[in-house]
Specification:
The complex is a heterodimer of chains A (340) and B (446).
Chain A lengths: L3 H30 L6 H11 L3 H18 L1 H10 L1 H20 L6 H31 L19 H25 L2 H32 L5 H5 L5 H19 L2 H23 L2 E3 L9 E2 L7 H28 L12
Antiparallel strand pairs in A: 1-2
Chain B lengths: L2 H16 L2 H22 L2 H35 L1 H35 L6 H30 L4 E5 L5 E5 L2 H5 L4 H29 L4 H36 L1 H7 L10 E8 L4 E7 L2 H7 L20 H30 L7 H10 L1 H16 L4 E3 L3 E2 L10 H32 L5 H6 L1
Antiparallel strand pairs in B: 1-2, 3-4, 5-6
Classes of the chains: A mainly alpha (340), B mainly alpha (446).
């Protein structure tokens, strides 16, 4: 019973970061693909497909960070100080990404636009990779000391398994973004983009297979909870089904169905990640007993209850107006006087 | 330099740079709501043109605020992880609440504000603009709560942990949120933000009038902003007084440093001066008894001096004294400027005074300077503590981050922020010069 509130917040923090992955995932993916369209008008279509919503999407990361601080301060403190240089790089990428979107179309010069196009795309790719590498590290395990401090070096974070998860995350976001951009475009551009969906899909499914295999072979602790509660096998099953449903929808020409399947794939993969981690938030390797878990890393039950009230009041509002705003900006991108 | 000096420099630099933008978003947000309300109630195209132009400026400012703000959300963990472990149970909730109640609201409705002009009705657009402004105001609530708790912690107890460390845990959420300095600080921050927004609009409008450009637009913008500026500047005087009284009750060492007041006893208020920290003497022009009268109601009431605190528990005195007094001087200048403007308006001479308009053009810098100086005084005045009387700044650092790493990130932020600032000024100037009528895409074809 002592674990109830920390478990609830383990799930809610996962929901926030999952929301980030689903929502910012597609706009990071659009960014990763941005340089592959060459002419100015097409690039503006790319930018404006995410123009009104990317900012709100990124708030899921900021709020997830705040919730992590509030609910699991030990994790917030250990991970961000331990991954110091990597996080500084992520922050720089997020800064450049934000200003690139805002600055890019404010001047007509070609060099200006090329510069911000490159900045937007590179920072999207770097952000996706770093988010994945961080997840790979906390799953694989990082050296922690008894007092919860990171005991490794910067290079210790760049081992093969985290790098593989980083590339897989990039592949997943790129596929997700390519499916999204097809929904927002029309005419010859859309015909071209549909071909990209196939390529990004193949790339992701390959990465997914390799990561799954690597996890089974080298990160066996990710399977402990699944073995303990076999009913949870429904989650990996759902993720396989939703991933399989993407190519099916694409070949049927159901763009929106493919996008929903891609969202479901992201959600179920995040859930699978959470199940694999539980009850740990950061694995310690080589001393698993120093892992940060819902027991030794959480805030007091009182704080977790307060946070639950805040979430219960705030999040229904957030979801309802976010949905309304997505609805208002539905349909194909039309460039007008207010566009980027 | 050691890790402490570097981390303090980095936090100070990144927060100071970030804090150029949120006050502008808050103040300009309010003015946008006013302009759009006038459009909605009168139907005059002029107000729509104004709202659209200032919205484009707002978009640029907002982007700068968001991109530099995301750094702040994570910097407690990267550079101050020992602090984060100690306060997370209390402080983290405020940051999370800021995300849930403020950032989602702001950035969600920003989409409609910037891109929704042709998709939604004027009524819904006005609603969206109001939600963006409300979200900006909410964000100030939660960050001020977090900061005020550092200054005047309340509603917590200290709990020993199984691993031997100690941390603060919440006992009463509302006491922590409405701790003794929250409300006066929030009022002070809001007025500073309204001043920042209002004087920015005044500056650009006065510039147009001096250049004989966009006359009707500039006159109408200037009038709205002048009313906001005059109200906020006067209200700021009261909120400043309220804040100082709170400081005298809750952080006496800080108040003593503000006034360079060493010997406990009746205290004067310095107009300007210089503190010799070695001898513990302050030289300058003071009004005798005024500080005592302001904080305690009697000119001979004793005010706690720095002599009550051992030297290692005092903040740096002279620098706090100087920044605090510079802030106050600017505050009075802003009152004089805005009320002089109201007087000219009343006499029907608002447009005939080039000197006044020239003063307005440069006035945009003053609230910015006062906001920075005020925060500097408040935060340096809290030293040597990061959480007043509970945790020293020197005990709050991340243990695993090495000076070389902080040097790297500090240099990186220094370079990037200077670059961003130059680009921001360039684009802002470009919008002011051309932005009113011509779109970039039209200029491109021309």
């Amino acid at each position: 019973m002592n674990d109830l509130w920390p478990t609830i917040w383990f799930i809610l923090v996962g929901v926030l970061f999952g929301g980030y992955a689903i929502l910012d995932g597609f706009d990071l993916g659009v960014g990763a693909l941005h340089l592959f369209v060459k002419n100015d008008k097409d690039r503006r279509v790319f930018l404006n497909s995410i123009g009104p919503i990317w900012d709100g999407n990124e708030v899921w990361l900021v709020t997830g960070g705040g919730a992590l601080f509030a609910a699991f301060p030990e994790v917030y403190a250990t991970v961000f100080s331990g991954f110091y240089l990597a996080f500084m790089l992520l922050l720089v990428a997020l800064i450049f990404r934000a200003v690139a979107i805002e600055f890019r179309s404010k001047q007509p010069m070609k060099w200006w636009r090329d510069l911000w196009d490159a900045s937007f795309s590179v920072s999207s790719i770097v952000s996706s990779l770093l988010v994945g590498i961080a997840m790979g590290n906390i799953a694989f395990g990082i050296p922690l000391s008894a007092d919860h401090e990171y005991a490794g070096t910067f290079l210790r974070l760049l081992t093969p398994y985290p790098l593989l998860v980083g590339v897989t995350t990039l592949a997943l976001f790129t596929m997700h973004g390519s499916i999204y951009i097809v929904l927002k475009t029309e005419g010859p551009l859309q015909v071209r983009l549909k071909k990209w969906v196939k390529n990004t899909m193949i790339f992701f499914i390959l990465c997914y297979a390799v990561t799954t295999l690597a996890t089974l072979l080298f990160v066996p602790h990710m399977l402990t909870t699944l073995r303990q509660y076999p009913v949870l096998f429904i989650v990996p099953l759902l993720s396989v089904l939703s991933i399989a449903n993407i190519p099916r929808n694409v070949s049927l020409g159901h763009g929106f169905g493919a996008f929903l399947s891609s969202c479901a794939a992201l959600a179920s993969l995040m859930a699978l990640f959470g199940i694999g981690m539980y009850p740990a938030l950061v694995y310690s390797d080589p001393h698993p007993e120093f892992s940060l878990t819902i027991v030794n890393a959480a805030s007091s039950v009182k704080t977790l209850k307060i946070m639950t009230v805040i979430a219960a009041i705030g999040m229904p509002l957030v979801l309802s107006y976010t949905a309304s705003i997505y609805w208002i900006f539905r349909g194909k991108v039309k460039l007008d006087a207010h566009s980027y | 330099m050691d890790a402490l000096a570097l981390s303090r420099a980095q936090f100070g630099f990144t927060i100071a740079f970030h804090y150029i933008f949120p006050p502008l978003s808050i103040g300009l947000g309010l003015i946008l709501v006013l302009m759009e309300s006038f459009y909605y109630s009168t139907g005059k195209k002029l107000y729509l043109e104004m709202a659209r132009f200032w919205t484009r400026i707002f978009g640029l400012i907002f982007a700068m605020g968001v991109s530099t703000g995301i750094v702040m959300e994570f910097e407690f963990g990267t550079n101050w992880s020992t602090y984060s472990r100690f306060v997370g149970d209390v402080f983290g909730s405020a940051l999370a609440a800021e995300g849930v109640f403020a950032f989602f609201l702001e950035s969600g409705f920003l989409a409609l504000l910037l891109f929704g002009w042709d998709r939604i009705s004027p009524r819904v657009h006005l609603f969206a603009t109001s939600m963006v402004a409300l979200g900006a105001h909410f964000s100030a609530v939660w960050i001020v709560v977090a900061n005020s708790w550092q200054q005047t912690p309340a509603g917590y107890h200290l709990v020993g942990r199984p691993d031997g460390s100690t941390r603060a845990e919440v006992t009463d959420f509302w006491q922590a949120v409405l701790n003794p300095s929250t409300l006066s600080r929030l009022w002070h921050v809001y007025m500073g933000a309204w001043q920042a927004g209002a004087f920015a609009v005044l500056s650009v409008s006065a510039y147009y009038l001096l250049k004989n450009k966009n006359r009707d637009f500039a006159r109408a913008s200037l009038k709205i902003a002048l009313v906001v500026a005059a109200f906020a500047s006067l209200s700021q005087l009261l909120s400043g007084h309220e804040s100082a009284v709170t400081v005298s009750e809750t952080q006496p060492a800080k108040l003593a440093a503000y006034e360079g007041h060493y010997g406990t006893g009746p205290a004067g208020l310095y107009l300007f001066g210089w503190v010799d920290e070695k001898t513990g003497q302050t030289h300058g022009l003071a009004i005798p008894g005024l500080l005592s009268w302001l904080v305690a109601g009697k000119s001979d009431a004793p005010v706690t001096g720095l002599d009550q605190f051992p030297p290692d528990k005092r903040p740096p005195v002279n620098i706090v004294f100087q920044t605090y007094h510079a802030m106050i001087a600017i505050g009075f200048a802003l009152i004089a400027l805005s009320w002089w403007g109201l007087f000219l308006w009343w006499r029907g001479k608002l447009w005939d005074s080039p000197w006044f308009l020239k003063a307005l053009v440069i006035s945009v810098l003053l609230p910015q300077a006062a906001n920075q100086l005020g925060w500097f005084s408040a935060e340096v005045g809290r030293q040597p503590y990061i959480v007043y009387n509970l945790m020293k700044t020197s005990d709050a650092l991340s243990k695993t981050v090495k000076p070389g790493e902080i040097m790297t990130s500090l240099a990186l932020f220094g370079f990037i922020y200077l670059l961003l600032f130059a680009l921001f000024i360039y684009l802002l100037n470009d919008k002011i010069q051309h932005g009113l009528h011509m779109k970039v895409e039209q200029r491109r074809r021309a």
